[in-house]
Amino acid sequence: MKPVAAPPGFVFARELMDGQRLSRTLARMAHEVIEHDPEVGRLVLVGVRTRGVPMARRLARLIGEMTGAEPPVGALDITLYRDDLTAVAAQPVIQGTNVPSIENRRVVLVDDVLFTGRTVRAALDELVDFGRPARIELAVLIDRGHRELPIRADYVGQEVATSRAQIVQVQLTEDDGRDCVLLLDRESKVPPTRPAAKVRRPPAGAKKGRRR
Are 34 and 190 a contacting pair, CB within 8 Å? Predict the structure, then answer.
């Protein structure tokens, strides 16, 4: 299966999760969140835009089905908290942040892919601007390694060994029309080969000149 729209310069490598496996993974993660602390009355899920938000909503719905109490869900746009903001765009697009009360609450931060840890760092910086939670936990669908900051997820859907040159692309029905996780490779650029130079041969019967 090929991705709906691979970023320029990348090609499809393999599928890491199909829709059924993704759904089972989220159900397992919801169970783990409950098992860690069955008291979900003070639980808040906050998704990191973009795909962390529908993930958080799905987890909240699953937790509600399992416990009878669906936790509130918030959304974080961490754009202005990024440490590479000046390199992103001259006028970055802000999608908006909406966070319910987190004061003295158990907050589970939700994102699709954990990579260097810099997105999570930015999300933590923004989150604490809204209050002082009792504790903050992290749930990610994919942990692909290559951490640059001391950040570890509490709930992980799948750990995937990747190279830095690869991309893990999470697609969710809410944003992409289907559920899957794809691994993309950087497109190899092979320089065109130069045609071999033709050797000029003297016509048949031609005499070689003398060297003087």
Answer: no
